[in-house]
Design brief:
By secondary structure, the chain is α/β, with parallel strands linked by helices. It folds into 2 domains: 10-327, Alpha-Beta Barrel (TIM Barrel), CATH 3.20.20.150; 330-386, no CATH class. 46% of the residues lie in helices and 9% in strands. The chain has 15 helices and 10 strands. Strands 8-6-4-3-2-1-10-9 form an 8-stranded parallel β-sheet. It has a two-stranded antiparallel sheet with strand order 5-7. The two termini are 26 Å apart.
Length: 390
Amino acid sequence: MPSPDPTYVPTPADKFTFGLWTVGNPGRDPFGEPTRPRLDPVDIVRRLAGLGAWGVNLHDNDLVPIDATASERDAIVSTFRAALAETGLCVPMATTNLFSDPVFRDGAFTAPDAAVRAYALQKTLHAIDLGVELGASTYVFWGGREGAEVDAAKDPIEAIKRFREAMNFLCAYVKDQRYGLRFALEAKPNEPRGDIYFPTTGAYLGFIETLDHPEMVGVNPEVAHEHMAGLNICHAVAQALDAGKLFHIDLNDQKAGRFDQDLRFGSESIKALFFLVKLLEDSGYDGPRHFDAHAYRSESPEGVWDFARGNMRTYLILKDKVRRFGEDAEIQSLLEEIHTSSGEGPPTSYSRASMESLKSRTFDRQVLAAKTLPYERLDQLVVDLLLGVR
């Protein structure tokens, strides 16, 4: 068997991360029991380090069982920290499981029951402490149960207010504790709820500006979640970058119109993910490349590590394709042709003089409409590049 191309072998410099819940997924789904044994977090850390990953992320209960005693919690965390020190892996991001336990069956921060909302806040405070103890600098919030099936039962405006109150409380806690932590909000249109509040990244970008400390809060777009909503992940991430709010990103893949599949990165949407990688690399994004995906339920325990390798390898292949795109003379020539203006552009800012000058200009609409836009040729060149024939 030929040795792997060294160009596509990951190193910690690539900042690839996985969650304990991703490679540790036992293959259970709503219609079937687990197909693989659960993996020990320490074993996950060691295997990921051996594959060239940079970090490992976690929900609180991925590591510490929800009913663990204080002494049990401390022993588990101590063992996990020793494995991190042994391997050099870091924990860049942490989050709270506010969706698995039956107490959250009708929401956490937006639950109608005030006592449930209080418990959700308490649980998150302890989970934030755990994340900071492990070195996390980003804390993600995915409101998987923050939604509804029965609109008659809930006031969505009240739900938004409750979510805002929770985020303001938690921002104040982080500032009071002097934790060096930023929050990232993760959108999803549906599942497990029929409808989830804040269904898209754009919805969260609007919400963030209503918080007491918007500078502390950004977004964590996920490929599958935007694709579930029928949206373009590249455009969502571009909006987050433009706003200075891309604090974290979840990479995976998804077939259109399906349930949330969390497929291996690049297993379906090659062109879309090429442009996502191009955006991340060209923009200078320097955060983690986190793979929030699961191995197929049919995989063996060892196949999980084939899955982990595949995520990282595909990203590196697409990153190399981005380099080739930039160096391809024909592609770049077409882009120059497309972007060459047919005349003077608009003013860059408003003034009375610039407005009067613009109003007095004469435009030849026939000339402007006649400009050649060779998009068919350009798109085929991209396809040729991705298929390996250029």
